[in-house]
Design goal:
There is one protein chain. The protein is of the alpha+beta class and 359 residues long. The protein has 2 domains: 226 residues, no CATH class; 92 residues, lipopolysaccharide transport protein A fold (Sandwich), CATH 2.60.450.10. It is built from 13 helices and 7 strands. Strands 1, 2, 3, 4, 5, 6 and 7 form a 7-stranded antiparallel β-sheet that branches. The longest helix is centred in the N-terminal third of the chain and has 35 residues. The radius of gyration is 27 Å and the shape is elongated. The relative contact order is 0.11.
């Protein structure tokens, strides 16, 4: 009964500090990002409503990114407050062991870990995808003057296009090859001199080419001067934008990696991102375990000192995560090690510090 009451009490202390830190850290980083983009926002022709919607949709991204900082700050404040108030000595006198203080905090951090994983699989992809679309289409529409050379494009399901030149604004492809991929490989191929988007038909029209069809190992083909294709993707939707892992769930990343592999490209970065999506939420649990011995050694520190300690240690941890991601993307480390290496290192440090601590 006493243990249950103490657990609820520690959880209250933890989550009050956690939500305060989450809001504060997210606001600071969000404002920094907004000031960095102020030049583009002021020059944009987008309406104020679109800009405000974009800024609001950016909030979940930054909030999820700073959850580990908030977790560490909550751990430091919850424990240091318990020590400064004298409750630490009182509960020890009643028979509590040091681990009785740690378990409620680790339980809270585990809840945050689960919440972080669910949020990055649901809220984050939807908001980030919408924010990125607003930025690229309305706030800073680079597609209006882009010219792509020697590109590989994705059309509808199972449709892949290669072209020597692609002008989205003009709706024009030079030397396009449209391939329809089925379960057994290429089923149909349109190879033409050029293709143009027909706004009335909402289709791409291919000119001066050959239509090849593959069926059970047999090839049939015919030449054409003009042919209306089945490709119904508008030029703006064909723009070869690299999909950001933050706008995809774990399942979507794996499907997208398969698509990239079929196009003959390396899915390494997507593999790193997939492992990172699993590893990153556990940062909260590990950084809480690391913060417990740190708080017990700081003991009488102020909330301001705890804030800066949380900031410094969190940035060091996140910096290590970013280094691991870069090494994984470059091929210097295997994807699994690049994502879980920092977690393993800091988890080992946390276990070492907890075992050495003596109340």
């Amino acid at each position: 009964m006493i243990t249950r009451i103490f657990t609820r009490y520690m959880a209250k202390r933890f989550f009050m500090a956690f939500f305060f830190g989450l809001g504060l850290f997210a606001l600071l980083i969000f404002l920094g990002d907004m000031f960095d983009k102020t030049h583009y926002l002021l020059k944009s022709k987008a309406s104020l409503g679109v800009i405000l919607q974009y800024l609001w949709l950016e909030v979940p991204y930054w909030a999820i990114r700073v959850i580990p900082m908030a977790t560490l700050l909550a751990t430091l404040i919850a424990l240091s407050g318990l020590i400064k108030s004298g409750e630490w000595i009182a509960v020890q006198a009643s028979g509590f062991e040091p681990r009785d203080f740690w378990l409620p905090l680790l339980g809270c951090a585990l809840c945050v870990t689960v919440f972080s994983f669910i949020a990055q699989e649901t809220v984050l992809p939807a908001c980030y995808r919408r924010a990125r679309k607003l930025w690229q289409d309305k706030i800073h529409p680079e597609w209006e003057w882009d010219k792509y050379q020697n590109v590989a494009l994705i059309g509808g399901p199972g449709e892949f296009i290669q072209a020597s030149v692609f002008l989205p604004k003009d709706g024009w492809l030079e030397r396009p090859i449209l391939e329809k991929i089925g379960p057994r490989g290429i089923e149909r191929q349109l190879d033409a001199r050029e293709a143009r988007w027909d706004q009335a038909a909402q289709r791409w029209i291919f000119y001066d080419g050959v239509d090849r069809q593959f069926s059970q190992g047999l090839l049939t083909q015919h030449y054409f001067a003009k042919q209306l294709s089945d490709l119904a993707v508008p030029p703006r939707n064909l723009i070869p934008r690299t999909r950001n892992p933050d706008e995809m769930s774990l399942r979507e990343i794996r499907r997208y990696a398969e698509t990239v592999s079929r196009m003959g490209l390396s899915p390494r970065q997507l593999s790193v991102a997939a492992y990172d999506k699993v590893a990153y939420p556990f940062t909260n649990l590990i950084i809480c375990a690391l913060g417990i011995p740190l708080a017990l050694r700081l003991r009488s520190s102020s909330k301001v000192f705890s804030f800066f300690a949380a900031l410094a240690l969190s940035f060091m941890y996140l910096w290590m995560i970013e280094i691991g991601r870069v090494l994984g993307n470059s091929g210097a480390l295997p994807p699994l090690l690049s994502a879980w290496g920092p977690n393993t290192l800091f988890a080992g440090l946390a276990v070492f510090m907890l075992r050495r601590y003596k109340a």
